Target: Putative transcriptional regulator, AsnC family
Amino acid sequence: MAEAYILINCELGSEDNVIKELKAISGVSEVKGVFGVYDIIARVNASNDEDLKKAVGKIRGHHGIKSSLTMMVIEGQGT
Model:
């Protein structure tokens, strides 16, 4: 299983709409608004790296997102 966390900056005022739309993307298992440098954090799960990259690409290409930082999880570490 491949997993990643994505920290997202949105256009001002678009956070609620972006969260709603991200939840509909296949592979997105969790989306939450956060305070701080970023506006949203999303957790993405996929059966393999290729499917994970596709999901991340859909998120990064979303019209309400200004920038993002993707952190892929190291499988097996911390278990």
